[in-house]
Automatic annotation (TrEMBL):
<protein>
    <recommendedName>
        <fullName>ParB-like nuclease domain-containing protein</fullName>
    </recommendedName>
</protein>
<dbReference type="InterPro" id="IPR036086">
    <property type="entry name" value="ParB/Sulfiredoxin_sf"/>
</dbReference>
Length: 267
């Protein structure tokens, strides 16, 4: 039973998102990120904003955990009334992939917690490691690019500390990056300097090929707002357009030229 305008506004807000996309499915995210074993189970306070998906109920709630299924409205209202008066429900059950959490049990509790403005929800968490890292900003629309990243990492198994900051917008960028890494590895192998396995080769590529380019560009003040892999991919596209496998001496100027033309066109 809704007893006042505040609770009415709460309910109207949560039922206002039927046209919005549904929740990201755990299976879809796991397929894109690549499962790599279950690491731990624990009880923790989880940031509500990072609970973004579901194990098996993608259509009852939208991507912001607003209720879409009218048949669940009464149950939601009763829980909202109880939690708004201080009643604390039991912990929810979540599956963690990187910085993302998916609800196995407790969808209503997460939905109400969001609408009440709570920052955390108490949960029993099962953490699954993945090949590609699940950043907190990842949503269903990004999964095709993450799938391409997964394929890249299977070809070029970068160290874990590098993987945690990988992000490119399109699968095509990942394909270009994989080709460039393997071309570098082939040149190194032909020169008789190949490390013992693919992991060592990938780490060497990042340290000896990618890092110096990044240092050069950042020292010139370029790309400070980009992630490392985004900056390198941008530079790589410029080098490829030049038709050379050698980094041009005027790389910074070539990168800055499109930006200058854009700024001039806006005047």
């Amino acid at each position: 039973m809704i007893t006042g305008p505040g609770e009415l506004a709460l309910v109207m807000g949560v039922f206002g998102g039927r046209s919005r996309p549904g929740l990201m499915r755990l299976d879809d995210a796991l397929s894109a990120l690549g499962p790599d074993g279950v690491m731990e189970q624990r009880v923790a306070d989880v940031p509500v904003a990072q609970v973004v998906g579901t194990v098996d109920r993608p259509y009852d709630f939208d991507q912001d955990f607003r209720l879409r299924n009218d048949r669940l409205r009464l149950r939601w209202q009763r829980l909202a009334e109880a939690m708004s008066t201080g009643v604390e429900p039991p912990p929810v059950d979540l599956v963690q992939l990187g910085e993302l959490y998916f609800v196995a049990d407790g969808h209503h509790r997460v939905s109400v917690a969001r609408e009440l403005g709570r920052l955390v929800v108490t949960a029993r968490v099962r953490r699954i490691c993945t090949v590609a890292y699940g950043m907190a900003c990842l949503r269903a629309v990004h999964l095709p690019s993450k799938q391409a990243e997964l394929e890249f990492l299977r070809r070029v198994p970068l160290p874990d500390d590098v993987r945690a900051d990988l992000w490119l917008d399109t699968p095509a960028e990942w394909m270009r990056l994989a080709d460039a890494a393997q071309s570098w590895a082939l040149d190194r192998t032909l020169a008789g300097r190949a490390p013992g396995d693919r992991g060592e080769l990938a780490a060497a590529w990042w340290a000896e090929e990618v890092a110096p380019v990044l240092d050069r560009l950042r020292a010139a003040g370029y790309g400070l707002d980009l992630r490392d892999v985004q900056l390198y991919a941008t530079a790589l596209a410029v080098r490829d357009r030049s038709g050379s496998a050698v980094w041009p001496a005027d790389l910074v100027q070539r990168l800055a030229a499109p930006r200058r033309r854009t700024l001039l066109s806006r005047r």
